[in-house]
Amino acid sequence: MKSKHANIAFFVPHAGCPHSCSFCNQKQISGQHEALTVEMIIKTLKDIKPDLLRARRTELAFFGGSFTAIERDKMTAYLEAANKFKNSHIFEGIRISTRPDAISDEILELLKRYNVTSIELGAQSTDDTVLAFNQRGHTARDIREASHKVKNYGFSLGLQMMTGLYKSTIESDIKTCEEIIALKPDTVRIYPTVIIKGTRLDELYRSGEYTVQTLPGAVSLCARLLRMFYDAGIRVIRLGLHSGGAVEEGYTAGPYHPAFGELCESRLYLDSAFEKLYLLPKGQYTIFVEETQVSKMIGQKRMNIDLLKREGYNCTVKGKSAVARYETEIEKKRNGETDVFKVIGNARV
Prior knowledge:
Elements: E1 4-11, H1 26-30, H2 38-47, E2 56-63, H3 72-83, E3 93-98, H4 105-113, E4 116-124, H5 128-133, H6 140-152, E5 156-163, H7 170-183, E6 187-192, E7 195-196, H8 200-207, H9 215-231, E8 235-239, H10 247-250, E9 251-253, H11 260-277, E10 283-289, H12 294-298, H13 303-310, E11 313-319, E12 329-334, E13 337-341, E14 343-344, E15 347-348
Parallel strand pairs: 1-2, 2-3, 3-4, 4-5, 5-6, 6-8, 10-11
Antiparallel strand pairs: 7-9, 10-12, 12-13, 14-15
């Protein structure tokens, strides 16, 4: 069974973009400065050994830029190169990312012909004021209309959002999350705003007009958004910028961390455990979590366990198959018997 997902990613930095968004420097983020060519695509796919991907559901992905706004001959040349390998068992479908205002019936019909299966839209925010101040060049209405079109044509819909943009607030970011949930995408990516050299945000930051999120603040907010999407049955496939490439070299300020997603998940487990423990007397407890999530409950460098210990709760963590994702179960042994504590509202049982 193919349980894991993998992308064979090609970056088209800034290709097709009609605007220079305040936060964007795709060449710095991706680490790719030369233009993508058909020859690069063919060589990469020829060199891939299908056996290495057998256990994964693999998509060929065109990221960066606005794929459907690329000059038409170039876009179709990329897709034709990819489709030469359609029956090679290297990938199962093609994923592209683009702008909400670069979607039309004609474009979607063309993408269908070239076996595109997933379309991600860079929404970033559903607040028109935030979109305007960050020079996005589209509106929240464009996001809604494009999302509906993508779904109506049978594509898998992905939406990308950012937190901490210029002129955004925690409240506007939460509202963006709620409005994205209402659009019912299949997948979501959440990116806390990081300042990259050579961007408008870099200028605003240096002039004092823009204040970046702190890392703890971004983790707290993004963990909350992650939980909202999870509860809505929407899969978050990325939290924070990918490490590698040239991100670290181009970084000016902001909540960048190479394991940002793990920090957010770890925060959810800490909150779940502490919600239960603060109703109990201080002492020694065992925290049970889903079997694959033990390290996230412990936290990086034992951060969560050390924090709970400072609050008077000396805890060990164990895996248990019956515990749901992002939930915890607390046990305490007393006089040879085990007490299991659960929390309903603000009462312990």
